[in-house]
Model the fold of this input.
Amino acid sequence: MTLVDLQKIYSQPFFDLISRARSVYLEHWARDEVQLCTLLSIKTGGCSEDCAYCAQSARYSTGVDAGRLMKTEEVLQLAERARENGSTRFCMGAAWKGVREGEAKFEQVLDIVRNVSRLGMEVCVTLGHLGLSEAKKLKEAGVTAYNHNLDTSEEFYPEIVSTHTFQDRLDTISAVQSAGISVCCGGIIGMGETETDRLKMLEVLTNFDPAPESVPINCLIPMPGTPLEDQPPVDVFELVRLIATTRIVLPNARVRMSAGRTRLSKEAQALCFFAGANSIFYGNKLLTAANPGVDEDRELLAALDLGTHGSDQE
Done:
């Protein structure tokens, strides 16, 4: 898919665009259901990277202290609770630049993954940069998906981070795919990028082989102490347009509403679901940011007559 193709889709009259996205969704997905995913920070803060949106960077004064890597037993208890609450995917994030085979912290993560994978949920991790050998180890341990967001376009990327390159992101994604792990890859909007930057990011995603199985779309939550703390909220209709365009060009991907839902009304979220979103992060916290509560999300899904992935609801 080319940028010109994407611009033609994105710039359609709003109701034509979301109607088309809805038709594509119904063509590729058998049920009106939303996958519930739980995201847990297993190692918080103290990261050496300088991502301008992230409160976990050691370079900024955000009030987030560097914590230790959680023990397997601690993670397992929370994973079991997530499963009981209806999550079918358990995602674990660690605030690191990356991991290397043989490191004690990587071996501990592998042990965590082995234990969590026995619970029967999809297991996703995001550990920063890695190579093929590390990806293969994660696959053997039970990882089903690796999250590594592009964040934005290659052109705008240097405005957001200087401690690694856009190509570094692509190299990690290539290693993950070579190991046979599904890729969860999306971006963040509201960082000062243009709509063209968003579509250029989507252009890269559409040319992955295989295509990403999950595309998280995050709205920036401006974190105090970060360089982006004063960014204004994302325009809701721009968000819906991006979700609809993503649904049309990546019809088999789970389009996941991620960070920023606390700034969206119920009506705005309903519009996102109509436009093709079919997954949310579930639970009252996303790494260091707030998220709608479990009961609140249950009420919203019930009001919209949306079932949940893995439930018996037709």
